[in-house]
Design brief:
- The structure is a single chain.
- This protein is mostly helical.
- The chain has a domain of 244 residues.
- Helices cover 77% and strands 0% of the residues.
- The chain is built from nine helices and no strands.
- The protein is elongated and about 125 Å long.
Length: 394
């Protein structure tokens, strides 16, 4: 009979030792993919917001140019002396902004063409009211085209949030169109009184077209701003915008009333119409900085949120990498400890293989030689013989 030798622990294979580390690396791959995708998405959104804020800055600089150009046109059509100081200051301010961010918005070429027109008007103001009306009309079209260019290249027209989209549409498109068209409506009304009777039919049609061009963007801007207030989560937008918006809306309603023909020939009260135009422009100048400020504030808040999301993504990725590193360290330590125990066991046995089996030996204290088999009771004394001495003693 033999006793089996103790089992020796098998050495893990190279694949078995490397499998835990391979699992750790496999967990890092999807983590890295998620982090890269999150970073790219937030990076694209962040770039758009930064570009939009540049567009807001450019539109803010163009607002004084719009006001000064409309005033200069009215003065030229009315035959008054045109003071170019305000327009010159506005042009210099835009030139400074264009030199700094115009290349990013790809607006330098458009601004160069507009600036050449503005300087030509300042150097040689037209003496004929009709010529002045046409010349300023061409310049204002270039100005509106620059507004469109800035909104497109800055990404304002692609703004994903409803409140900021409606704000940029109102301030970048509707309000400049309304301000310029209101000035043209009043100026054309003055010119209509000076034109011969043969041109009356053409003048009436032209006045109707300019009236629509002045009132339609005004109504669109009011709609845009109210939609922005209704859809915004900002608590400051409504109280800040609605009061100057109401003032502007009342001025536009007066402009619409005074520009309506009162006679079959299409005549209107030019004096009241000019006063209504002045009120519209004053309300527009009050509204412009408010809308631009609120738009920039919304974009700044969104930029802060995107930066916060990026830092959260970085923190989550760093925490996950740290935890995986700790797990890898634990696995490596466990593998080293197992190898050390195996080496110690081998050093104790003195052999790297399993111990050889030995023949069975009798336990200590027992005779090693075999004894012959005896029948039951053989070699034993009878019970009476065993108890004889005890019975004699009794």
């Amino acid at each position: 009979m033999t006793v089996p030798a103790p089992r020796v622990r098998r050495r893990p294979s190279a694949v078995g030792r490397a499998l835990p580390l391979l699992l750790v690396v496999a967990l890092l791959a999807p983590l890295a993919l998620l982090f890269v995708q999150t970073w790219r998405l937030t990076d694209d959104d962040r770039d758009l917001v930064v570009s939009e804020r540049l567009g807001v800055e450019y539109l803010r600089a163009l607002a004084p140019v719009t006001d000064a150009l409309v005033e200069a046109q009215s003065a030229a059509v009315a035959g008054r002396t045109v003071s170019g100081d305000e327009l010159t200051r506005a042009v210099e301010a835009v030139a400074s902004v264009d030199a700094r961010i115009g290349d990013d918005l790809r607006a330098q070429e458009r601004w160069a063409g507009l600036r050449a027109k503005l300087e030509a008007l300042s150097d040689r103001s037209p003496t004929d009211p009709e010529t002045a009306y046409a010349a300023y009309g061409e310049t204002t079209e270039l100005l509106l085209d620059l507004h469109r260019k800035v909104r497109e290249t800055s990404g304002l027209v692609r703004d994903p949030e409803s409140d900021s989209f409606f704000l940029q549409d109102g301030i970048g498109k509707d309000l400049p169109q309304a301000m310029i068209a209101a000035g043209r409506l009043a100026d054309l009304t003055i010119l209509a009184a000076q034109r011969p009777a043969a041109q009356r039919a053409r003048t009436v049609a032209e006045l109707a077209g300019v009236r629509v061009a002045a009132l339609a963007p005004s109504a669109d801007m009011v709609t845009d701003l109210r939609a922005a207030v209704d859809s915004s989560e900002s608590t400051n937008l409504g109280p800040t915008v609605l009061t100057p918006l109401d003032t502007y809306q009342r001025a536009v309603e007066a402009l619409a009333a005074y520009s309506t023909p009162t006679t079959p020939s299409g005549e209107v009260d030019a004096g009241r119409l000019v006063g209504a135009r002045t009120a519209v422009q004053a309300a527009g100048r009050q509204l412009q900085p408010v809308i631009l400020g609120e738009l920039d504030a919304l974009l700044a808040d969104r930029l802060d949120d995107l930066d916060r999301e990026r830092w959260l993504a970085v923190g989550a990725a760093a925490t996950a990498v740290l935890l995986l590193a700790v797990l890898a360290a634990i696995l490596v330590t466990a593998a080293r400890r197992a190898r050390r125990r195996t080496a110690e066991a081998r050093a104790t046995t003195g052999d790297s293989g399993p111990l050889p089996s030995a023949p069975w030996q009798a336990p200590a204290g027992r005779p090693a030689e075999p004894r012959p088999l005896q029948p039951a009771g053989a070699g034993r004394e009878p019970a009476s013989a065993q108890w004889g001495p005890f019975d004699a003693a009794r």
